[in-house]
Amino acid sequence: MAAYPPDSRQPVFRFAPSPNGRLHLGHALSALSNEALARRFGGRLLLRIEDIDLIRCRPEFVDGILADLDWLGICFEGSVRRQSEHFDDYGRALASLQARGLVYPCFCSRQEIKAAVAACEAENGKSWPVDPDGAPLYPGFCKGLDKAEAEHRIATGEPHVLRLDMARALAQAGDGLGYELFDEAGRRCFVPAQPARWGDVVLARKDVPTSYHLAVVTDDALQGVSHVVRGRDLEAATDVHVVLQRLLGLPTPLYHFHALLIDADGRKLAKSRASESLAELRAQGVTAAAIRQRLGFA
């Protein structure tokens, strides 16, 4: 990694959990990593609640997040930004992309896509390409749909998502897409982005007028985030964020990806697998100091 002169502006970090469950040790590692690096580089630390999923995200989980972070002793500056209060911001970003012909409606369900991919694999004897998360790339059934037909189906209330036309997006974004990684010493290195491996990603869901990708790049820009510290499981998603940042004229932060905590079965800790929460550890008498020591932040 090559060393670069420090940025003249004060760094801004953020911890951005989703309130669809209680925080576990993996979240504590991410929050404490942000705290440590913000302190090391003389930066500010912000808290954002990523609650665009209005079905899975619940108020009691927001309260739990705030209680867990207070227990850990992590201090954040300014007010907490809640994504559910800023759908207008994401709508403006989406409209900007739509105006450039980069977004199209897709009426395919996940089941229909899965069935079509399975049929193609059976017919050709070849595996269908998948994205970095292991999901099959969208076959593009709705990509060439007649505009009038699409508008009629939308007007009649047919469920649909909005997808980014990745080929057009990359053509408009131009060359040199990538981002800079930084380490604990402040050294940086450039990483070329590979957005094409994600295919035509969803930018607005059927039940939510945005997506994680669109919301996170919009929020980071509006909050002035300069340094993003998150787990390695989100490293590949940065490819999508970089192309959106270029298209929307937003700055690309520096990135740092920390290691993941693994359970006894070799899987990363996750709310969906009911990994032991910080609240459960606290109820067992574990102290915040013990958590910090356990995670290397004594």
UniProtKB/TrEMBL annotation:
The gene is gluQRS. One of its GO terms (cellular component) is cytosol. It comes from Bosea spartocytisi. Keywords: Aminoacyl-tRNA synthetase, ATP-binding, Ligase, Metal-binding, Nucleotide-binding, Protein biosynthesis, Zinc. This is tRNA glutamyl-Q(34) synthetase GluQRS. Belongs to the class-I aminoacyl-tRNA synthetase family. Its EC number is 6.1.1.-. GO terms for biological process: glutamyl-tRNA aminoacylation. Residues 14-291 form the Glutamyl/glutaminyl-tRNA synthetase class Ib catalytic domain. One of its GO terms (molecular function) is glutamate-tRNA ligase activity. It holds the Pfam family tRNA-synt_1c.
